[in-house]
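Async update (no meeting this week)

Hi team, since we skipped the sync, here's where things stand on the single-chain job. The sequence we agreed to prioritize is pasted below, unchanged from the tracker. I ran it this morning and attached the output directly underneath so nobody has to dig for it. Comments welcome in thread, and please keep replies under the output.
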Amino acid sequence: MKGRKFAPLSAMVHEEWAALVLNMKINDEDGADLRDLRKTVEIKFALEGSDHGVFWKIRKNQLEYKNGKPAYWLLGSYTVRKPIKKIKEGVNDKETREIVEYNIQERVAYLVSWEWVRKNFEARRSYGKRGYSRWDEEILYATRAKLPEITETYEVGDAKIYLTKGVPKRSFRIRTDDIPF
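Output:
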């Protein structure tokens, strides 16, 4: 599978997983990826193994996603069972997404406060083109090295979720039972 095909599929798989684990709904409107009556969560995952370390690319306009509710970031990383190039596509989209989920392993996610990104990272201009794509936007690069102190750890199947300083435990009902992933 090509990386450009794998990336958006893995993002959808992570979003579905996070919605189940955090007991939230996927937001099908503009704004953060997940929501419930009391809060919103924007999700970013990075593939482990890069020479640059783990970082999360956040578009500056995403900082405005709060919608008047408390908001959080779920910043995660994962590995894959085999090189993405060797992962075969399924016969349809559903099967391909199942194959992508099967190949994701060692998922780790950190819940951090919304303000943590604002306080620790500055936006930088990113521009360029590749094929038919062109971009010119301001990006913040959040890094694992600067994550706040971990206050709680939850084991969710083969994954781990960490609550960090500034995230109230009472804000989340994290499922630790077997989920269908």
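Quick observations from my side:
The two ends are 21 Å apart (CA to CA).
Residues 76 and 109 are 4 Å apart (CA to CA).
Reply here if anything looks off.
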